[in-house]
Amino acid sequence: MSLPLLLLLSALILLFAYFTYGRFISKKFEIRDEQPTPAHTQNDGVDYVPSNKLVVLGHHFASIAGAGPIVGPIIAVTFGWIPAVIWILLGGIFFGAVHDIGSMVASLRHKGKSIGVIIQQYIGQNGKRLFLIFSFSTLILIIAVFADIIAKTFVKNPGVASTSALFIGLALIFGSLNRKLAHKKSAFLWLSIIGVFFMYYFVILGNSIPFERNYVFWVGLLLAYAFAASVTPMSVLLQPRDYLSSFLLYGLIILAIVGVVVANPEVKMDHNIVFNSEDIGYLFPVLFITVACGAISGFHSLVASGTTSKQINKESDAKVVGYGGMLIESFLAIISVCAVMVISRTDYVNSLSTDGPVNMFADGMGFVISSLGIEEGLAVNFVALTISAFALTTLDTCTRLARFTFQEFFEESDNKSVQKLTQNRFLSTTVVVILSSLFLLSGEFTTLWPIFGSANQLLAALALLAVSVWMIKSGKKVGFLLIPMFFMFVVTLSSLFVLAFQNFEKGIYSISIVATLLFALAIVLLILAKRCLKKEDEKVGA
Predict the structure, then answer these.
(1) Per-residue pLDDT of the chain (542 residues; tens, 9 = 90+)
(2) DSSP symbols for 207-270
(3) Contact, 460 vs 301, CB < 8 A?
(4) CB atoms within 10 A of CB 38
(5) Which residues span the membrane (predicted)?
(6) 397: burial class by Cβ within 10 Å (0-12, 13-18, 19+)?
């Protein structure tokens, strides 16, 4: 199959799914605009801020994307591009998009609170505590890893650091002007056009004014930035930066599509399906863990029920942001697969071990985009910069999410002093940044990172469990939720069992212990959910 045909068919399938299955899912959740959203009922000007759906889509897409839909799908091509593409399309439409909009709508109906609070209300207090501890630990791990990745990128490429700083300055100006001119209908459009122009201009300018500093400096500055992004009102920094940054990825997608059509590069990757890879294991469950963000990712539930739900202006926006945002990410995952289909399997295996998936994506897309008359080196740099910009988005969003999680854990504490202190956003963010710093300095994040894929997909299974229980208790049919939920539990429990067993044999006890604990967590929450539903049935029967 040619790359233009693959992209065309994928785009048509995803568009058709949005207008058909997306409408079906919206009806299942009984989405209606008559019901005010938490952005209005809880509006505090800091976290709860009703916003334009395109701005919210930009924030949500930038937050959930990162490098996930690039790294995962490229590694998954180890099993062949055919199974990778099939899972991305099926998983994105019937699993990931349902998971994202489900988490978002559930949060909208519960004052913009996270999945943890929903678990508390429908499964129990112990379930909430276990889920929030798990979520908080995962977020601290992500913050530490991404602070390390970005700091090393800035040291290696000071031009990227300069461009990132310029982006932040631009976002502050855009946010300020957008608030002042909000009463003028055409102002947002013109601000967007001007903001996007300067953003692309800063891509070029940043490379000409490199800002060189050492690793420790960048780690400190990045965590200070993450602190500021977590405590300032959404409309000041986080929201406008994410919105403008999303146009980098939109631009990358458009350039990739046009480049593939114009160049029509030869597909050199074979059509073989590999069921057992010596490097990463068996196709099941590894493929479904590895593709992650390209099909379904538990991290999305934290964003959807964390920052995004607090900005939704009206319920119908959830379809565009939640369901639509996931399908855009799935399309980006298809583009990532295309980026490595232009090389042979031998070259793919060699490049994966030497260059890594991010560089492979940058080189592949740089080659394709250069067919449009753009110098290949500049194209490669643009792709690499886009990925770095989204890594920074993941860092600041995760810091805010970790703050929410920390506050929700203590919001019903019996100790009123503890409750009051932990609800202070400055203090709770300080705790998040300190813990992330200590974890980063300890170096333990590199040991535990390999288990993140399984932990992330366990989050997805647990989010689907919470949404399913809520819907069942509301008297709704939930077959469209139960099928992906059970599948993700089977996938994650299988993966965790294999991780625990293999790492125990290798003597890597830290990963083995964590995998065992996560396996136990999943079983405990399933049991709690079953007991909860059984009690509900007994009440109905009585």
Answers:
(1) 799 999 999 999 999 999 999 999 999 999 999 999 999 999 999 999 999 999 999 999 989 987 788 889 999 999 999 999 999 999 999 999 999 999 999 999 999 999 999 999 999 888 999 999 999 999 999 999 889 888 888 888 888 889 889 999 999 999 999 888 877 778 889 999 999 999 999 988 887 888 899 999 999 999 999 999 999 999 999 899 999 988 988 998 999 999 999 989 999 999 999 999 988 899 999 999 999 999 999 999 999 999 999 999 999 999 999 999 999 999 999 999 999 999 999 999 999 888 888 888 888 888 888 888 888 877 887 887 788 777 888 899 999 999 999 999 998 888 888 888 999 999 999 999 999 999 888 877 777 777 888 999 999 999 999 999 999 999 999 999 999 999 999 999 999 999 999 999 988 888 899 999 999 999 999 999 988 887 766 665 55
(2) HHS-----HHHHHHHHHHHHHHHHHS-TTTTHHHHHHHHHHHHHHHHHHHHHHHHHH-----S-
(3) yes
(4) 21
(5) 6-25, 61-82, 88-109, 130-151, 157-175, 187-209, 215-236, 243-262, 282-299, 320-343, 378-395, 426-443, 449-472, 479-501, 507-529
(6) buried
| Residue among 356, 361, 367, 353 nearest 385 (CA) | 361
- The answer to whether 371 and 262 have CB atoms below 8 angstroms apart is yes
Residues whose CB falls within 8 Å of the CB of residue 325, separated by 6 or more in sequence, listed in order = 57, 60, 61, 64, 100
3-class secondary structure per residue, 128-164? HHHHHHHHHHHHHHHHHHHHHHHHHHHHHCHHHHHHH
* CA-wise closest residue to 311 among 34, 98, 91, 37: 37
CB-count exposure of residue 468 (10 Å: 0-12, 13-18, 19+): buried
Tokens of 227: 């602190």
**Helices marked H in 370-415:** 376-410
In total, the chain counts a number of residues equal to 542
Residue 413 dihedral angles phi and psi, to the nearest 5°: -65, 145
Q: Are 141 and 542 in contact (CB under 8 A)?
A: no
Show Cβ contacts of residue 336 under 8 Å, excluding neighbours closer than 6 positions: 69, 70, 73, 74, 294, 361
In the block, which residue shows the tokens 């995803």? 14
**Tokens for 418?**
């503890």
